[in-house]
Amino acid sequence: MKSMKPQLEAKGHKFPRGLTDVIPVCSPLWNKLSPEEKASYHQKAKDGGGTTFIKEERCDTRGVPLNWKEREEQKKISEKDHLLQKVEDMISYFATQGTLENHYFYLAHFNIAVTTSEGEYPPCEIAIVKFSLLDGIAKCYHDFVEPGQIRLGYAHEAKLHSENTHNIPTFGFKLANSDYVNITNNIKEMLKQPDGGIAPLFVVDEDNAKAIYIVD
């Protein structure tokens, strides 16, 4: 998989979580290899002290190993439980300190151009609000984002997604900001705290995958 990663990235694939995201893409390619080609990869991994390309195991219709999918699902559940516990601990702390009503939280929402089978979520709109339970919304940041070149084969799907959801044009939208450095700096400035730290950014559960991809 390590040897395939640079080749796939050169073709436009993105792997924000490293080899974890490489497996779903590599598995179908691996299944198409001949026994001789697979043996060659096994030998290269052995000689290099690495791991075998992909083990022979049961796969789904896309060629993704079922065991890997189960491990990833369990990992996501564990990570979600850990994050929820951190949020509960933070809320409990503010409550015991008597500062919960005055504390400012930051909530983000992202609209995307399309969702690809490679796990990509090119953004087309971002909004962040700063609010407290006592004062309500105190500040808001909003911008339309240029999603960039849509992966080949997804133009029609992106058009349908736009028409059925946010109605933001996927192509040629004059209000879309393509200065990603400027967008990043605006977000950092929004979240910057008096002590120089960065406040945590919250999203609703259904936006979690999109947020991780976009922010990373």
From TrEMBL:
One Gene Ontology biological process: male meiotic nuclear division
Keyword Nucleotidyltransferase: no
GO MF terms, alphabetically ordered: sequence-specific DNA binding
InterPro entries to which the protein is assigned, alphabetical: HMG_box_dom, HMG_box_dom_sf, Maelstrom, Protein_maelstrom
Domain HMG box: 1-46
GO cellular component: nucleus; P granule
Entry-linked Pfam families: HMG_box_2 (PF09011), Maelstrom (PF13017)
Keywords, ordered alphabetically: Cytoplasm, Developmental protein, Differentiation, DNA-binding, Meiosis, Nucleus, RNA-mediated gene silencing
Gene3D superfamilies in UniProt: High mobility group box domain
Protein name per the record: HMG box domain-containing protein
Species whose genome carries this gene: Daphnia pulex
Taxon lineage: Eukaryota, Metazoa, Ecdysozoa, Arthropoda, Crustacea
